[in-house]
Amino acid sequence: RGLDLWMVNDNLSDEEIKKQVYEFKKKGFYSVVFRTYNGLVSDYPGPMFKSKLRTAVDAARECGLKIALQAGYMPSAYPNLPPEYALHRIVPTPISAIGEGDVVLATYGDIAFLDKIAPAAVNMLSASAVDYYIRTAYEENWAEFADEYGKTIISVWLDEPRFDNRYLTWTPDFSERFSARFGYSIEDTLPSLYFDVGDYKHVRYDYFTFLRESMEQYYYSRVRLWCHAHDLSF
Q1: DSSP secondary-structure letter at 149?
Q2: For residues 78 and 45, what is the distance between their CA atoms, to the nearest angstrom?
Q3: Nearest of 29, 30, 40 to residue 7 by alpha carbon
Q4: What pTM value is reported for the model?
Q5: Edge-to-edge strands, sheet with 103-108
Q6: Measured between alpha carbons, how far is 142 from 145 in angstroms, rounded to an integer?
Q7: Strand partners, 170
Q8: Distance from C-alpha of 213 to C-alpha of 207, rounded to nearest angstrom
Q9: CB-based contacts of 192: which residues, under 8 Å, 6+ apart?
């Protein structure tokens, strides 16, 4: 059966929430995501929002509809994220524009490749950062609804476990882990990610293979294990 996005916006009314839950069930829907959307007037994910979510969960239990919670924050847009859990990115910059304190990973011609923090993006290539994300955006955020896990609540939904497509991804320990995996320095070959120089096809293949493997190991596997431990679908 499908899982449908129920876009909740404007001022949330208990009466309207109950009405829509029963209407979903009446029309044959199986499960819906209580999904924040544009124009929501709320303290999300605060007490007022949670009281409305409780209204939806209670009504869904009464009529047999299933609910998926929305993760507290998307991993690419986490406000007030501690810097030690933030993803980094490679930012090509003219050498003449390098600022004080900038970390230069490599240079090519008049271009410097800088290591810059992405302050609101969770480092999905780090076990400690992903554990922090799961603990705060999943476990602590929705703790009061855990009694319905595996019953009325069937999953915790999110979108955009992604990297900013304007930049290539980096992490503070990227170089060390990459070298251990592939046996050569990514900094020495960094220009090959941007220019057709050296063995650029090989370097790019290794780079994106590393991203995929790290995402599987540190992000997807950890989220999956948490979901399964709490009787939720991943």
Answers
A1: B
A2: 12
A3: 40
A4: 0.92
A5: 103-108, 111-122, 86-94, 168-170
A6: 6
A7: 88
A8: 10
A9: 198, 199, 200, 203, 204
pLDDT in tens, 1-45: 889 999 999 999 999 999 999 999 999 999 999 999 999 999 999
- The Cα-based distances of 145 to 68, 139, 151 in angstroms read 11, 10, 11
- Please give the structure tokens belonging to residue 44: 């999300």
42-46 long-range contacts, CB within 8 A, separation 24+? 42/12, 45/72, 45/141
Express each pLDDT in 190-217 by its tens digit: 999 999 999 999 999 999 999 999 999 9
- Pairing of β 111-122 and β 86-94: antiparallel
> What is the rounded CA–CA span in Å between residue 169 and residue 118?
10
Q: How crowded is residue 109: how many other Cβ atoms within 10 Å of its Cβ?
A: 9
Distance between CA 232 and CA 32 in Å, rounded? 14
Write out the two tokens for 58. 């209670």
Rounded Cα–Cα distance for residues 232 and 234 (Å): 6
Q: Tokens representing 72?
A: 């507290």
- Extract the runs of DSSP E, i.e. beta strands, from the chain: 3-11, 31-41, 66-70, 86-94, 103-108, 111-122, 153-157, 168-170
Asked if 6 and 34 touch (Cβ cutoff 8 Å), the reply is yes
Question: In 10 A of CB 178, how many CB atoms?
Answer: 20
